[in-house]
Specification:
Elements (H helix, E strand, L loop, with lengths): L1 H10 L6 H15 L2 H61 L1
Amino acid sequence: MNLEDELRSALRREPSPPEFRAKVMARVPHSRSWMMPIAAVLAFAALVPVGAFEYRQREQARAIKARNDLALALRITRAKLQQTRDRVHRSTRHAL
């Protein structure tokens, strides 16, 4: 029982000295002055990879679209060339 009483006595709440708050508040602005630039750098460092990833995704999507558009253009060109070739063959057969 004596040990429990000693622990309670040692761990009981005590009000802080009146000058304690003033000392802490006096130091707060000084400690925050370096926090904003560091917070900005950390935020920027966190956003750069996200932006780079999104940029890469957009560029990859544009490349895929360009590839698909080119494939479509080549298929259309091939079909038109085939139609032209067939017309030329038909006209040369009729001319003979």
